[in-house]
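Comment thread on ticket #2218

A.B. wrote:
> Attaching the input chain for the structure job we discussed in standup.
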Amino acid sequence: MQIGLFFVSLALTLAIVMLPMLYLRPVSRSVLMELCDRSEISAKFWLRTAKVLVLALSGSLMLVLMFGKTNVDWADAARITLILALIGVFITVMFVSSNIGGVCQS
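C.D. wrote:
> Ran it. Output below, let me know if you need it in another format.
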């Protein structure tokens, strides 16, 4: 196991998870403000909850730790890490969006 490659894979995974979270934050804020009757405190609560969900439920780190390979060259390790991290982000965005969508419909 290459320790340097292992830590680079973890850092790359964290960066990939943070990008969609930062991208969706303004849109999530406006939707949550509308859902929470323009209450700033409620919207902040739900934004922080969504942030925790993105980090905790993305599963990206878990996927990379379980299925990532550190006994290959750097290019293959980066490719595997990108694929696994993006799968985790995609599943999480679907989960959070469906939960917010369920609230909007009711």
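A.B. wrote:
> Thanks. Noting for the ticket: Helices lie at 3-35, 40-57, 60-67, 74-105.
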